[in-house]
Structure formats: structure tokens, C-alpha cells
Amino acid sequence: MSRLSPTGRKALLTLHLVTSLSWLGADLVLLALGVAGLRGADAEVVYPAAGLLVTWLFAPLSVLVWLVGLASALLTPWGLLRWRWVLVKFAITTAMLGLVLLLLAPTVRRIAELGTDLTTRDRLDLIIPPTVSTTLLIVMTVLSTYKPWGRLRPAAPVARRPGDRARSRM
Ligand code: HEM
């Protein structure tokens, strides 16, 4: 059962789309900076810029996307534990949130402080994680539109009265 009015639900969905697709955009910018760094662009420009991007945009967006995604599940008829596509998105986003806050953000900040003293391994730290996360975000966008795999549990039977019309959309 939805706890939101149709207007409230549209507003929440809009917020969900703006935050999650901004997360994808920020991730692509991070990847572009990583590629620039690997190709020899000025490390004292590229990596501090990546540090700022992660600290002020990517990490805060990770928290916001997780919260708004959770609200989109709990406050709509989709629920968190009813449909496989919702639960899989929640699991992936939760894992990504942990990795961004505990691993990616500290790593990028460390690299930003190294100046020009960087190994190829350091430079790859700004290529591999954004490649993986961008792929996961695209996968989640596809899951959201196709909504595959059906329900986790069968729907509870609903008492129908003669003349009731079947619901075709959620
Ligand atoms: C905590 C993680 C997430 C949860 C629990 C979640 C859950 C949901 C739910 C329940 C809806 C349907 C909302 C409605 O019909 O009003 C939805 C829509 C959508 N979500 Fe997420 N989401 C999460 C993260 C993401 C991420 C990371 C992306 C993309 C990068 C994303 C992309 C979308 C898109 C494109 C839709 C619109 C689908 C449509 O209207 O057909 N979501 N999400």
C-alpha cells in the first residue's frame, strides 16, 4: 500500500531519478579524470580535482541515493522485500555506498596528496573502481526500467468484489 499521494510519489520519483543519475554522471566525470591522469595529464591538477569531486559530490550523492532509493521502496507499493529487482538494487547500492565511503574516498584523497609522485598502480586506482561502479549504475538503470525476475514472495490474495477492475500498473 502506498503511503504517498500521487503528487508526492511523482516528486519522490523525480528526486530518485535526479539523484541516482547525477551519481552516474559524477562517476563518469571521475572516470574521465582517471583516464586523463593515466594518459599523462598534469597530476597536480587531475588528482586534486578528483579528490574534490569525491569529497563534495560523489560521496554525499552516494548517501543521498541510498536514502532516497530506500524511501522510494518503502513509501511506494513496490516495497523493499517484494520484488527481486528492488532488492538487488538495494543490495548493490548498499555495497557501493560502503566501498565509496570506506575505500574509494580515502584512496582518492591519498592520491591527491601525492603530487607527481604516483605509480601506475595509484593511477589505476582512479580507473578500475569508477569503471566497476559506472557499470553497476548502468546495470541498475536497466534493472529499474525492465524490472525483471518477478516477486520474491507470491502476492497476498486480495478480496475482490464483483465489478472490481484488475490493477495493471503499480
Ligand atoms: C537503495 C537503492 C535503490 C532502491 C531501493 C531503489 C528503488 C526503486 C523503486 C522502488 C522505484 C520505483 C519508484 C516508483 O515507481 O515510484 C525505482 C525507480 C527507479 N530507479 Fe531506483 N532504487 C535504488 C537505486 C537506484 C539507482 C542507483 C539507480 C540508477 C543509477 C536507480 C534508477 C531508477 C530508475 C531509472 C527508476 C525509474 C523506473 C520507472 O519508473 O520505470 N535506482 N527505484
Indicate the proportion of strand residues: under 5%
Shape: elongated
What is the H/E string?
HHHHH
Instruction: Indicate the mean pLDDT.
Output: 93
Between the first and last Cα atoms, what is the distance in angstroms?
10 Å
What would you call the structural class? mainly alpha
Largest sheet: none
Helix content: over 70%
- Could you tell me the number of beta strands? 0
Counting copies of identical and different chains, the oligomeric state is: single chain
Question: Given the structure, what is the number of helices?
Answer: 5
**Ligands, deduplicated:** protoporphyrin IX containing FE
The residue ranges in which pLDDT falls below 50 over 5 or more consecutive positions are none
Protein name: DUF2269 domain-containing protein
Organism: Micromonospora eburnea
Keywords: Membrane, Transmembrane, Transmembrane helix
